[in-house]
Amino acid sequence: MAVIERDLRRADLTLPEYPSIADIADKVYAGERITDDDALRLFHHKNLTDLAELADFVRNKKHPDTTVTYIVGRNINYTNVCWVRCSFCNFYRIPGHEGGYVLSREQIFQKIQEMVDVGGIEILMQGGLNPKLKIEWYEDLFRAIMEKFPTVILHALSPAEIIYIKNISKLTMEETLTRLKAAGLHSVPGGGAEILTDRVRDFISPYKDSAEEWLDCMRVSHKVGLKSSATMMYGSIDTEEDRVEHLRKLRDLQDETGGFKAFIAWSYQPDGTELGGTRASSFDYMRTIAIARIYLDNFENLQASWVTQGPRIGQLSLRYGVNDFGSTMMEENVVSTAGCVFTVPIEEIERLIEDAGYTPRRRNTRYEFVD
């Protein structure tokens, strides 16, 4: 840094001045938990290099070797029929719409087989809130999948879907999750979190579950032995205060249950949506994941969102606290309908990791090495 400052002075240039975050840095280096006010100050701090240094320190403390993990999996959107009409979503079709679909069991099996044929092990299966699909439909499907593909991991059904299945099947949350687990569900993806403040949720998805309902679903999932991931979709109408509140609620629940395996942040994709708006910048993404790594001190893993940010930004994020490159996906239908179409083969994922100075290793959903 001193060399850079000297060269700038020689060129008669002025380095930008930023408010000091030295007191926050002292906490991070000492292994102390930062506060909500600290996190908000970091969001207002415009020097990405400072944030990257702190996030990378935390990442290296949790993962001191050069390993960056990824998983070979496939995303299966089994239905796009959904009555909720979230204003940020361009994927759904209302019940009765000619563009609505429910994949047949044969179609789902074919997609799984294609994944297995290239060494894949995880199915990320999510869809709309379809009023025709009650818990028996999911139980029958999960049992059939596990009978035909006993080694495949079912990472399926976001809290929004589970809450809806519970409601239309007239069950408790614990009954719903226990039955789904018995049928073959292995873990719960963190989709549908958006921003965990009701101010934001009431505006962008007024008919969807509340922040507390989402958190309670995850709490019960962990109680019955289903681990999960946690997500944040930022950049719609949320403020930096909303993002900090979101992170605090996740950190509090992780303190309580320890059931979250990873955190993933991605930016709102506005193209073709009712909500509209602009796409968040790469700067905002880097800042957000760095702060998440610093603040979420009880989360072991942070996953890159190259599907929404692009593979090169995903690669750069490895220096901003990220230690996992996520899934090969193979197929994506939700954010791609909003103008986001990044796909990356296995060989390219490994090359991106290696070029950034890390060692790629395959994992399973439990973040255990499988290579």
UniProtKB/TrEMBL annotation:
<feature type="binding site">
    <location>
        <position position="89"/>
    </location>
    <ligand>
        <name>[4Fe-4S] cluster</name>
    </ligand>
</feature>
<dbReference type="InterPro" id="IPR058240">
    <property type="entry name" value="rSAM_sf"/>
</dbReference>
<keyword id="KW-0474">Menaquinone biosynthesis</keyword>
<dbReference type="Pfam" id="PF04055">
    <property type="entry name" value="Radical_SAM"/>
</dbReference>
<feature type="binding site">
    <location>
        <position position="194"/>
    </location>
    <ligand>
        <name>S-adenosyl-L-methionine</name>
    </ligand>
</feature>
<dbReference type="InterPro" id="IPR045567">
    <property type="entry name" value="CofH/MnqC-like_C"/>
</dbReference>
<dbReference type="GO" id="GO:0044689">
    <property type="term" value="F:7,8-didemethyl-8-hydroxy-5-deazariboflavin synthase activity"/>
</dbReference>
<feature type="binding site">
    <location>
        <position position="327"/>
    </location>
    <ligand>
        <name>(3R)-3-methyl-D-ornithine</name>
    </ligand>
</feature>
<keyword id="KW-0408">Iron</keyword>
<dbReference type="GO" id="GO:0046992">
    <property type="term" value="F:oxidoreductase activity, acting on X-H and Y-H to form an X-Y bond"/>
</dbReference>
<feature type="binding site">
    <location>
        <position position="158"/>
    </location>
    <ligand>
        <name>(3R)-3-methyl-D-ornithine</name>
    </ligand>
</feature>
<dbReference type="InterPro" id="IPR034405">
    <property type="entry name" value="F420"/>
</dbReference>
<dbReference type="InterPro" id="IPR007197">
    <property type="entry name" value="rSAM"/>
</dbReference>
<comment type="function">
    <text>Radical SAM enzyme that catalyzes the cyclization of dehypoxanthine futalosine (DHFL) into cyclic dehypoxanthine futalosine (CDHFL), a step in the biosynthesis of menaquinone (MK, vitamin K2).</text>
</comment>
<dbReference type="GO" id="GO:0005506">
    <property type="term" value="F:iron ion binding"/>
</dbReference>
<keyword id="KW-0560">Oxidoreductase</keyword>
<dbReference type="InterPro" id="IPR022431">
    <property type="entry name" value="Cyclic_DHFL_synthase_mqnC"/>
</dbReference>
<keyword id="KW-0479">Metal-binding</keyword>
<keyword id="KW-0004">4Fe-4S</keyword>
<dbReference type="GO" id="GO:0016765">
    <property type="term" value="F:transferase activity, transferring alkyl or aryl (other than methyl) groups"/>
</dbReference>
<comment type="pathway">
    <text>Quinol/quinone metabolism; menaquinone biosynthesis.</text>
</comment>
<feature type="binding site">
    <location>
        <position position="88"/>
    </location>
    <ligand>
        <name>S-adenosyl-L-methionine</name>
    </ligand>
</feature>
<dbReference type="InterPro" id="IPR020050">
    <property type="entry name" value="FO_synthase_su2"/>
</dbReference>
<dbReference type="GO" id="GO:0009234">
    <property type="term" value="P:menaquinone biosynthetic process"/>
</dbReference>
<dbReference type="Pfam" id="PF19288">
    <property type="entry name" value="CofH_C"/>
</dbReference>
<dbReference type="InterPro" id="IPR013785">
    <property type="entry name" value="Aldolase_TIM"/>
</dbReference>
<feature type="binding site">
    <location>
        <position position="82"/>
    </location>
    <ligand>
        <name>[4Fe-4S] cluster</name>
    </ligand>
</feature>
<comment type="similarity">
    <text>Belongs to the radical SAM superfamily. MqnC family.</text>
</comment>
<feature type="binding site">
    <location>
        <position position="305"/>
    </location>
    <ligand>
        <name>(3R)-3-methyl-D-ornithine</name>
    </ligand>
</feature>
<keyword id="KW-0411">Iron-sulfur</keyword>
<protein>
    <recommendedName>
        <fullName>Cyclic dehypoxanthine futalosine synthase</fullName>
        <ecNumber>1.21.98.1</ecNumber>
    </recommendedName>
</protein>
<feature type="binding site">
    <location>
        <position position="86"/>
    </location>
    <ligand>
        <name>[4Fe-4S] cluster</name>
    </ligand>
</feature>
<dbReference type="GO" id="GO:0051539">
    <property type="term" value="F:4 iron, 4 sulfur cluster binding"/>
</dbReference>
<keyword id="KW-0949">S-adenosyl-L-methionine</keyword>
